[in-house]
């Protein structure tokens, strides 16, 4: 990989992992449009590690509280309180991650073979862009995460599983369902980001295992730069997205998705 490819792909992963515009689409498109070679398993592992570290570090207080409270719910640690909300939230996130794990386990080969095309990305970019815009316009309530309940968390988890289809956007579809369930923009984004932690960890672990079992050479320079750039861009993205969300809403991202989707359709069909 050239230096410019490393920089562009790492920044794309870091920025688009948490924006509602689909990271998978933006990582697939350079090879589709520019003819770049696949970045390789090692680089995929690096950018996943970078984005995972960013979201865990940003929400370190929440993650720490949930971890302690979760152990308390199973009778381990100083806080053996099953009614602690942090413990409930940890269970919701763990259980809501199961659909994505199952969908990835049984559907990944089909997705890899049939759904990683520019045409599919164009269709999902447009479809889920419209849904995000609809949810943002229609959302009137301001339900707290505490009132989401396990049922609501599982619905968001099922949406996260659908996001394995390229172009859907994991953060986009989970925020869409969160808004439809009455969460505020900030609460929908926060739950989406917390839900991403086990999902990114699973994806990174799967890619790491594939890398260990493969005979592919490792470009340590690409891994180092990719991980660092993905971490920095992802951390900045989370921080400023949460600051600007109530001011700008979802519409700028909806418009971007619609423009991108139409452009891709023109590229594919022209």
What does this molecule look like?
The chain is about 80% helix and about 0% strand. The chain is mainly α and about 270 residues long. It has one domain. Helix 5 runs parallel beside helix 7. The radius of gyration is 18 Å and the shape is globular. The model has no long low-confidence stretch (mean pLDDT about 85). It is a multi-pass membrane protein. Catalyzes the dephosphorylation of undecaprenyl diphosphate (UPP). Confers resistance to bacitracin. Keywords: Antibiotic resistance, Cell membrane, Cell shape, Cell wall biogenesis/degradation, Hydrolase, Membrane, Peptidoglycan synthesis, Transmembrane, Transmembrane helix.
Tell how many strands the DSSP assignment holds. 0
Q: Estimate nothing, just give the exact number of structural domains.
A: 1
Terminal residue distance: 30 Å
Q: Quick one: overall form?
A: globular
The sequence of SSEs as H and E is HHHHHHHHHHH
Roughly how many Å is the radius of gyration? Answer: 18 Å
Tell me what portion of residues adopts beta-strand conformation. under 5%
- The structural class is mainly alpha
Q: Name the poorly predicted regions.
A: none
Q: What's the average pLDDT? A: 87
Outline of this structure?
By secondary structure, this protein is mainly α. Helices cover 78% and strands 0% of the residues. The mean pLDDT is 87.
